[in-house]
Amino acid sequence: MSKELGVPFLGSIPLDADVVTCGDAGLPIVIEKPKSVAAQAYFAIATPWTCNCKVGRTTLRPFSWEWSSTDLGPGWAEDAIHKSGSSTTAIGLRRTNPRTLSVLWEDGGKANST
After folding, report:
1. How many CA atoms lie within 13 A of 87 on its CB side?
2. How far apart are the first and last CA of the chain?
């Protein structure tokens, strides 16, 4: 499939019921069972990418935020927008009114959720 789509083949993950069980519990298999074959496959796929990625200000930093606070949100980093950015990497979250959360994507797209 990667050849058909013209994208690099990243690797394969073996079928393992523990991936589903851990995921359902909200615990990634790489944390819950890091020595498992499935976790090792995830590590093998992720390691080359993490070594080559530059950590910048293109993603939100960890934050704690409650909707009921008077703060509008954890950030809105318009300076991190770039045309080749990801349409699935959030660089901003903002409460625009008592019922609406706005998300700013790295490619400059915006989405509202009510």
Report:
1. 2
2. 37
